[in-house]
Amino acid sequence: MSPLIVLVGPMGVGKSTVGQLLAGRLGAGYRDTDDDIVAAQGRTIAEIFVEEGEPAFRAIEKQAVREALAGHDGVLALGGGAVLDPETRALLAGQRVVYLSMDVEEAVKRTGLNAARPLLAINPRKQWRELMEARRHLYEAVATAVVATDGRTPEEVTQAALDALELKEA
């Protein structure tokens, strides 16, 4: 068993929204590893970061992604930093992975780059740019297709992802 589509990209790009739309259009289930982590841990991702730090969160995330890749056959959305782990990137090889991209101005519009994002708590624009400089090549390396989300509705992004993967609706 493996996912029909895996979505990767930065926080706030719309992985959850587009993932749910894709699942609906393909007649498949939807799963988000961030939701899995929150349910299993009984606390928010921000709380895990504050209480245990990023390395502890990344270990939890790595296991959640491994389990989801092995146990879900629908549309799967990964957290923004999941691609940082080399073993996770290796597991994504051979999967249909869509990298949803956006620029910093779009990120500001969508998320407000607010404090609920633990990695963006101080100087959000600068930190978002630095995160993207560190991660963009990783997203691109695992991607089967790249779909720009800037200035597009979730429905337009969903259609672009289906077109890029040459998938037909259910």
Walk me through this protein's architecture.
The chain is globular. The mean pLDDT is 88. α3 (45-52) packs across α4 and α4 (54-71) packs parallel to α5. Helix content is 55%, strand content 11%. The protein has helices spanning 15-26, 33-41, 45-52, 54-71, 86-92, 104-111, 124-142, 154-165; strands at residues 5-8, 30-32, 75-77, 97-101, 145-148. The two termini are 19 Å apart. It has a five-stranded parallel sheet with strand order 2-3-1-4-5, with helices on both faces. It contains eight helices and five strands. The longest helix is centred in the C-terminal third of the chain and has 19 residues, at 124-142. It has 170 residues and is of the alpha/beta class.
Shape: globular
Q: Mean of residue pLDDT?
A: 88
Q: How far is the first residue's CA from the last residue's CA?
A: 19 Å
Based on CA atoms alone, the radius of gyration comes out at 15 Å
Count of DSSP H/I helices: 8
Low confidence ranges: none
Overall number of strands? 5
Oligomer: single chain
Instruction: Going across the biggest sheet, name each strand in turn.
Output: 2-3-1-4-5
Proportion of beta-strand residues? 5-15%
How does the major sheet shape up? 5 strands, parallel
Order of helical and strand elements? EHEHHHEHEHHEH
Helix/strand/pairing category: alpha/beta
Classify the helix fraction into a percent range: 40-55%
Q: What's the gist of this structure?
A:
By secondary structure, the chain is of the alpha/beta class.
